[in-house]
Design goal:
Length: 159
């Protein structure tokens, strides 16, 4: 068998090229062919920033990663508007008459003074429940309830 580039006979485990120089030559030829293919595409303006760029594919419409990220954000916001779906809102509630427990904090006076001067206490929504199923524990976390009564051993006092 002979080298694809220089037609010298191949030795040992060589299958296509006789050495590194022929392999590098072929790689350079294929890369320049690919570059010539891409240069056929006309330069076009970026849809985000308006700058002119050389597209690699016909479908390329943005010039850089930053413009792509900006365009994706714009598309998501327009899709949300088209779907008539407002952005998610954090539901908070404002308290003007707080409820203090018997064992309330030492800040009770400061809280009441803050409310008298026109301040509002914002209560954030409670945290969502975890994804683990609830376990009904009547007496707390004891082994009998967690693993069943198989762990209960009866010991005779006579033994």
């Amino acid at each position: 068998m002979n080298c694809v580039i220089c037609k010298k006979p191949l030795r040992g485990y060589q299958k296509k090229y006789c050495g590194g120089s022929c392999k590098d030559y072929q790689r350079q030829r294929t890369q320049s062919a690919k570059a010539a293919k891409f240069s056929i595409l006309a330069k076009k303006p970026c849809v985000v920033c308006g700058g002119v760029f050389q597209p690699v594919r016909k479908a390329n419409i943005v010039c850089s990663i930053a413009c792509r990220i900006t365009r994706n954000k714009m598309q998501k916001s327009t899709a949300r508007v088209r779907a008539n779906c407002p952005p998610p809102v954090l539901r908070t509630s404002h308290h003007t008459k707080p409820h203090f427990n018997k064992n309330c904090s030492s800040n009770k006076k400061e809280i009441l003074r803050f409310l008298k001067t026109g301040g509002k206490i914002t209560r954030l929504p409670s945290a969502p429940v975890g994804k683990t199923p609830e376990i009904n524990m009547v007496y707390g976390w004891i082994p009998e309830e967690l693993f069943g009564s198989a762990l209960m051993y009866e010991f005779d006092e006579n033994e």
